[in-house]
Structures are given as structure tokens and as C-alpha cells.
Write a structure and sequence with these properties.
Blueprint lengths: L1 H35 L6 H21 L1 E5 L2 E5 L1 H4 L5 H6 L2 H22 L3 H32 L4 H12 L2 H12 L1 H4 L5 H16 L9 H18 L6 H20 L23 H16 L1 H7 L3 H12 L1 H19 L15 H25 L10 H17 L5
Antiparallel strand pairs: 1-2
């Protein structure tokens, strides 16, 4: 009996030692990442990009349901059955912040490339290659999966729903790539011009009974608003806190007026069965809501810079940024893989059931760690497609410093 107790204590000590060593290793790795980061890097930019990507991922996982019904799967949303949950979309629809950061980084990068003598074609190729390399892996996998499902006799509507859900993030990349290519033309464009286009398009569509296809003009004009705000940030026109407060207050007031008085949908994402979607294509309400988000992002810059001085926090943000496209492109696949894998276990709450009550919401929240695990598996398998074959400055600097320290500590050093 005593031997068993002693053995249990020893096992517990070994586990505790292993945990402590793991924590120490994580802290050391975070310290190396922090030390290798260039001192002039604006870490708030990376923090905002990470927030935007993770916001989209979390939003999709919370409002996207695959309901199993009569041997088939179809998409549904809790916002359709519980419209009072619309504030969820206010928190997790963060695309405007991503376009804000994208405009800022692209404008600054293009100016820097010109100063180095890099041609526009070389700069654009470098920018878009990392954006689209991961796309090839997603398209290849889902082409094989779709063909295999159809050949196995799967319901066509089920396959269509799955493929549409998996490839839905692609529209964002196409728009973002187009705006990136137009950076030299729009870098000095006043954001009020594309905002005026969105206003007139909505006025013609909803006020004068114009054609619905006209709304697709807002796909470019709507996202051009935060993108050109990012360019204005680069020029130093948004450095004062007053700019952030004006965008936050003005965007919030305009959005509230459009929802309460003009009867725009309260949800900032599309809802199945809805007559109007604020996002597909973007409406004036989505754009003004984005202005409020951009204002809040600008106001948080200094606080984020201070927070990013903590090595552990900064290393986590850096990891998300290095894998931003992989996370974005594979998060829906992670959700669907979990749903399909668990289907033989029956119609599980929060996974296969209709999202029509708070029980579903609670169950879905409980599934989030499982989705995260599935996404981690996807990240492990496909993150290499996002890596630039050229050596990254941060990684190269980390490697050189690490080797220098090893040589300095070596007893055989001459």
C-alpha cells in the first residue's frame, strides 16, 4: 500500500515537472520571438489583423449550423430563428477592420517598395502570392471531396451546401486582391467618395425601386471605404484621437438610424430567408457599421501597443498573423469535418439540430473547443502552403541570434 502511494506521488511529481518545463519552454520561445521582432514594427497592426481574422472565424462557428434532416444536410442560422441574437454579429463581423489594416499595410508597403526601386509588378506578385498559395490546397481538397461524395451517392444538395460553405471565404480574397492591385490608384482617394457611391446605390435600390443587381457595385465601393481609411492612416491623417471618436460616434449613430428608421436588418451578416442581407452585397448600414468599428480600432492602437509588449501575448498574435490565411480558409472545413465525423453518433445538440432555442446556443458554445482542435489539425497539415519560400526577416534574425548564443556558450569554442 505504501509502495503504491509512493509511486503515485512520484508520478504526480513527474507530471508537475513536465508541466513546469513546458511552461518555461513556452516563455523562452515567446521571449525569442519578442527579441527578434524589429523595434520599429507597429504591433498594434498585427493585433488588429489577428482580432479581425479570429472574429470572422468565431462568428461563423456561432451562426452557421448544418442541420441533419432526412439523410441530408442543409445550412441554417440561429439568427433566423432568434433574431434578437443579432448583437452577436455586431461583435464578430470584423471584416472592416481587416480591410482597414490591409489598406494601411498595402499603402505603406507599396511606398517602401518604390523607395527600394521595386517595380509594381514585383510588389504585387509578392503581396498576392502569399494570399493565394493556400487557396490551391483548399480547392484541390474540396474538388476531390465533392467528386468522392457524388460518386458515393450523396445527396446533391448536401454536397452543394458543403462546397458552398467551404468556398464561401473565397469572395473575400477576390475583393481584397482587387483592392490590393488598385492600391497605387486609391492610396490618396478620400473615403467619402466610395461612401457616396454606396449611399446612392442603396438609394436607387431601396428608395427608387432600382434593379437588385446594382447592389453588387457596393462589393467594391463598400470595402473600399475602410481600405482607403487604412491609406489615410498611413498618411498620418488619422493619428489624432479625434478622428477615431468621429468615426466611432458617426458610424454608430448612422447605423442606428438606418436600422431603426430606414428598416435595414439589425444583423450585420446574412440570414437565411431574409429579404435583405447587409453583407451580400454590402449595404450602407454595413459600411457605416464598419466605420464605427474602424474608429474603435484606431482608438485602441496605443493600448494594443502597450499590451503587445508582453512576450507571451505578442508571440500568440505573431503566430496568428503568420497563419492568417490558413486559419481563414480552413475554419469552415474544420466545422464541417466535426459535423460529419460526429453524424454516426446521432443528431447531437448544437451540431446537427435546428438552431431554434438557447439550448442549441449553449451546446454550440460547448462544441467550439472541438472546432478549434479540428482547425489545429488543418493548420498542421496545410500551413506550409502559406509560408513564403524566401527567408523571413524575423525568423532569420531569430536563427542568427540563437546560433550566436549557442556558440558563445559552447565549451569547445576557440
Amino acid at each position: 500500500m505504501r509502495d503504491r502511494s509512493l509511486s503515485g506521488v512520484m508520478d504526480g511529481n513527474r507530471i508537475g515537472t513536465g508541466i513546469r518545463q513546458g511552461i518555461v519552454g513556452i516563455r523562452r520561445g515567446a521571449t525569442r520571438v519578442d527579441a527578434a521582432t524589429p523595434p520599429d514594427r507597429d504591433r498594434a497592426v498585427d493585433a488588429l489583423r489577428a482580432f479581425a481574422i479570429l472574429g470572422v472565424v468565431m462568428g461563423h462557428w456561432l451562426v452557421t449550423a448544418l442541420v441533419a434532416d432526412s439523410g441530408a444536410l442543409h445550412t441554417a442560422s440561429p439568427l433566423q430563428h432568434m433574431p434578437w441574437l443579432a448583437p452577436i454579429s455586431w461583435v464578430f463581423q470584423t471584416l472592416a477592420v481587416f480591410f482597414l489594416v490591409g489598406g494601411h499595410v498595402a499603402t505603406r508597403g507599396h511606398a517602401s517598395a518604390r523607395a527600394r526601386g521595386t517595380t509594381y509588378g514585383q510588389w504585387l506578385t509578392a503581396r498576392l502570392s502569399r494570399l493565394f498559395r493556400p487557396v490551391a490546397a483548399v480547392l484541390t481538397l474540396w474538388t476531390v471531396v465533392a467528386i468522392a461524395l457524388l460518386l458515393s451517392g450523396a445527396d446533391f444538395e448536401t454536397v452543394r451546401a458543403l462546397v458552398k460553405l467551404a468556398l464561401s471565404p473565397m469572395w473575400f480574397l477576390v475583393v481584397f486582391a482587387g483592392l490590393t492591385a488598385a492600391t497605387p490608384l486609391v492610396a490618396r482617394l478620400n473615403p467619402l467618395w466610395p461612401l457616396a457611391v454606396v449611399l446612392h446605390v442603396d438609394l436607387i435600390r431601396f428608395g427608387l425601386g432600382g434593379p437588385s443587381w446594382l447592389g453588387w457595385v457596393n462589393v467594391a465601393a463598400g470595402w473600399l471605404v475602410p481600405y482607403t481609411l487604412g491609406a489615410a492612416w498611413t498618411r498620418g491623417e488619422l493619428d489624432r484621437a479625434r478622428a477615431g471618436w468621429v468615426l466611432l460616434a458617426g458610424g454608430t449613430a448612422a447605423t442606428a438610424a438606418l436600422v431603426l428608421l430606414a428598416r435595414y436588418p439589425a444583423s450585420m451578416v446574412g440570414v437565411p430567408g431574409g429579404t435583405i442581407s447587409n453583407l451580400d452585397p454590402p449595404t450602407l448600414a454595413a459600411v457605416t457599421f464598419g466605420l464605427a468599428q474602424c474608429g474603435l480600432a484606431l482608438l485602441l492602437r496605443d493600448r494594443l501597443r502597450r499590451t503587445m509588449r508582453r512576450p507571451l501575448v505578442w508571440s500568440a498574435v505573431a503566430l496568428v498573423n503568420l497563419s492568417a490565411m490558413t486559419i481563414f480558409l480552413w475554419h469552415q472545413t474544420a466545422l464541417m469535418a466535426t459535423t460529419a465525423t460526429m453524424l454516426p453518433a446521432g443528431h447531437l445538440p448544437g451540431l446537427h439540430t435546428l438552431p431554434d432555442d438557447l439550448t442549441w446556443v449553449a451546446a454550440r458554445v460547448a462544441w467550439l473547443p472541438v472546432f478549434a482542435l479540428a482547425l489545429t489539425i488543418c493548420w498542421t497539415a496545410f500551413r506550409t502552403y502559406e509560408q513564403d519560400p524566401r527567408p523571413r526577416p524575423i525568423r532569420t534574425r531569430m536563427r542568427l541570434r540563437f546560433r550566436t548564443r549557442i556558440r558563445a556558450k559552447s565549451p569547445h569554442r576557440a
